[in-house]
Structures
1.
Amino acid sequence: MKVELQEISPIECRFSVEVEAEKVKEQLERAYGQLAGKVSVPGFRAGKVPRRILEQRFRAQVEADVVRDLEWLGYMEALRKHKVDVVGSPHWIHGVFNAQEAYSFVARVDIRPEPKLEAYKELALSFSEPIVSDEDIEKQLENMQHARARYEEAKGREEVHIGDRVVVDFVAEVEGKPFKGSEAKGVSVDVTRGELRSGHMPQLEAAKLNETCEFSHIFGEDAPEAFLHGKAAQFKVVVKAIQERQLPPLDDAFAVSLNAKTLEELRVRMRQGMEKAERRRLAADFRTQAIEQLIEKNPLEVPNSMVERGIDWMMEGALRSIAQTGVDPRNLQMDWSTIREEMRPKAVVEVKGQLLLSAVAKAENLEVGDVDLEAKFTEFAEDSGVELSQVKKQFTDVSQKQALSQSILEEKALEFLKLHAKPPVNG
């Protein structure tokens, strides 16, 4: 088998392959032999159909299958011989098939580019350690307290206050006409800041029980019907009942309801969790900075197949997020092609960033060992509260372990860039 490699660009190559006539004949013999054992032709016993009859009836199909098999055999031999790091599937340029002659074809395929690092040390990168103040803790505690509030009848009070929950009847019109959902009775809404569609009516502050309150509301792009977008609706609301918010006291009993023994222990746990979340946010920001500067100082092309794979990954993540809200993405009237194109610039940056960070790791001989994997497994177990043995079971697949190793290697490359960043780096 003759194989010639031509590098078309840093991201694409071309294999010209010639499969010898003997191999063509061998593949044809095998194909007709397999076909004879499967087909049923009137007048012939199973497995005894003459070759000439098979050729008369199935020649086009058999030769198409043989061409496909020859091309894949030749392509795999080309990869074995030249050891090219290809990405994506090949684009075939088919040859002319003749059962008595050698078969030649061309396969064009994207290749993983090898970035030429010109500058990656002393980048102007800023980073900081996570800081969670006592005020941050108390604000989060207050949010948790409000989330666990109870509502009780506001006895002896007929005026609505901010923070109340009220039961209302309402009617609404747009340009003097009703619309879908423009009338309801016995609806509970919160008199707090927020979106009307989420059940918030801050306009009811100071409204009186059993009296009509009127206000105007302009619908945004998320209105239930398209014709409402940007339109002003006139609401007439009657408050039928007022409930005032009762906040649970911030004490040890409150902490116990959140699986902590004391309020102080709850604060400690909250600080740890908030610092961890802040550390992740800062790490993501630093990664974005590093990638932007690496791309600026080390321009490179990336093959479309890698970009498309990146878009696929982003789409899968977006669809999972939608599904986790209880919405079936298939029921959404979305232009997925447009969404994919909107994701493309971000996918290009991500692919370039991954390649450049891998190049940094290679240039500095950074490696991932068993100790690194074990530390990451332990981190996952602590973060999720799952037994370490169960975490390890999730990474028994070779591809999963390789992906984790690549992620750890990227972390090491980012840490190297941080250690060798241009001062001042704290900001």
Note: The chain has three domains: 2-111, 150-246, 261-419.
2.
Amino acid sequence: MELAKIEKLLEAYFEGSTTVAEEAALRTYFTNADVPPHLAPYKNLFAYYEQQQQLTSTHTVQPPRSSQRYLWMGVAASIVVIVGIFLAAMVGTESTTSRVVITEDPAMGTYQDPEEALRKTKEVLNLVSSYMHQGKQDLVYLHEFEQAKKGLVYLNEFENTKNSLIK
């Protein structure tokens, strides 16, 4: 083979774009022919590949043994899941049928008169609003904390400047 073609094949080989036939041509070139000195490292590389292809493994692989225990564990787990689904379905149907009770007790939150329902809703919202305002009053101190923190930042800048001057 001519040298320019071998060099192009080598470039394509290292880019991963050669075909099996081109790789075989490279292997035969580097294992049989006299190789120019600038391509000598590739001769060792392809000789190594050829040598490794000839090796066969002497290690025997044993298939994993199937255990009857795992089979029975799977069956038991399936039964437990089926029983669990059955019991959950039974408990679910009992609770929905026995607990459905319609009440008109004002303590339960059901009102017949829309005006009364609106008045009670406003009372509850005012109560929630008052609690939120009480929590907001404590946030005033947070502003004072931020101001003190800014003062510490200036103090830190002063300390850094002092340290740089001392060095």
Note: Helices lie at 3-15, 20-32, 40-54, 68-98, 114-137, 140-166.
